[in-house]
Input
Amino acid sequence: MQQQRASRLWELAAVFLKLGTIGFGGPAAHIALMEDEFVRRRHWLTRDEFLDLIGAANLIPGPNSTEVAIHVGRLRAGVPGLIVAGSAFIFPAFCIVTAIAWAYAWAGKMPVTLALLRGIKPVMIAIVLQALVGLGKTAIKSWLWAIVGLAAMTVAVLRPEDEVAILAAVGIGAGLVAWIGTRKPRAVALSVTPVALWPLFLVFAKAGALLFGSGYVLLAFLRGDLVERLGWLTNAQLLDAIAVGQVTPGPVFTTATFIGYNLAGMPGAIVATIGIFLPAFLFVAISGPLLPAMRRSRVAGMVLDGVNVASLALMAAVTLTLARDAVTDATTLAIAVIGAVLLFRFRVNATILIAAGALIGLIGLAAR
Output
């Protein structure tokens, strides 16, 4: 038993280090990669189980895709798995963002990085679409859920800052329906005056403990503390930090790593990263065991179904936004279309496609 647990921990570390390294594109892309890895390829989870993990992650504050990773680790190897999976998923982004924080001030826009992203982003569109189709077939259980999902996606496209309200409206609405039935979801360096580590930890722990949603909400939340209340950053500096978190692989919340490094060096990067992610580990450890009980309850189960549908709607809305940014010319359109064909028709491994996209981007840079 102990040998099996150790084997599973090593397996979790390896797979999440890989996903954290190739996971460009934000939470929607991360979840798509996890669905491909754990539902399609490794068969660790059914689609229903994976959808429930997405819904559960959306019900608690913190970085959604990281929380899904932590949930997978908990199911696979208990509390040690929870720690290993989440840490392994965060670690590559921590290293990359720390390096960028150190070098970005004089490295400018880094043409090689932009060329890589030009080839990778269209591939991520195809990967997310594949996950949406597969998960949608499971989550959309009737024409009514399809209408709800379409409405939620439309609102999310028009008002992306309202994603928490959308999740709440759909989840609570579904729960009410069930309840009624029982009665008859070049950046500039941030070199500023160094700050103490404990206040830095508290600021990011507060964000990790209270923040629902993605980069849009993170920007507003951090602005209130770091720009307006404490004066540690300017608006422009905060936007640069958010941008670094978004263009690097792994969790967008490693924005905290970038800010922490530039406010207090390497200790600041470590403290800020621990602060913003620690609540996610605690929330998953507490809420994860409650999922089976939620499924047994008609009302709680309907709330989870509603949050699942709303989560996929938000994921689809984010994909539309990502597509507008990723598909900008004939080359990137061709990459996206070919990637989709290879995924849907031939089931080519997503990692291979991401590597191919990166190579095409570098070839395009060299050809200029």
